[in-house]
Amino acid sequence: MPENFDLNGWIAHGSDGNNPHTAEQIDPIIIAGINYMKGLGFSRIGAAGYCFGAKYVVRNYSHGIQCAFLAHPSFVENSEFAAIPGPLSIAAAGEDDYFPTHKRHETEEILRTTGQEYQINLFGAVEHGFAVRADPEDRVQRFAKEQAFNQALVWFNHHLGEG
Length: 163
What we know:
By secondary structure, the protein is an alpha/beta fold.
């Protein structure tokens, strides 16, 4: 994130001060999207949440998502992880202030208790945001980003594929 970026201000007020990114504003959008897909006849829905979006995938899992993938999640509460009703895959950054080592370990312990299939891949030497903002000239960052993408594809194919 840019050095001067006010993340808490963005969440509370949005980019122009009039479009907050709070659960009250975002949850209905996610639910409407899931319901729209179900209305089109989709019976198997996978969801991917990167960074801030991870929280909303996890929060709204029970509205019709069959499996989920998260990359460098942020702001997901332990109680939200504990409530997941289906499989979850996480691509985590080794250097992450939003999903630090202790939070990753707590999440792993929580996921063990859910009875759901889960996967956590740790990509060392990359920072929060690596799966979307990797420097393609940096081979370590590029590898982590590509592998996180592949992780998501394999996960969704395993849980949503025909076979």
